[in-house]
Amino acid sequence: MFVASLAGIFKFNELPEKYGPFVQYKASIEKREIKDTDEIAILNISGTESNHVLFLDSYENVKQIEEELKEADAEINYHTKKILEGHL
């Protein structure tokens, strides 16, 4: 199992360019139109070159995020979990 660590939480219009393709991909999967004010969490998946994108307004609690990550064979580290709880 991989560990997901928070790389950052950004508004879409402040998102570092390197995360753009990941965000666009996740938005296309969810058939979502991204707004400049959307809060987006980027999780780095340890041991991979991958990042996991979370549109924070799509979740009511961290449990939902944990379930989504479980499907990707990943779990959130403790500090990331606490930070995400504060943003939901």
Automatic annotation (TrEMBL):
Coiled coil: 55-82
Taxonomy, superkingdom: Archaea
Alphabetical keyword list: Coiled coil
Membrane-spanning segments: none
Protein name: DUF749 domain-containing protein
Organism expressing this protein natively: Methanobacterium congolense
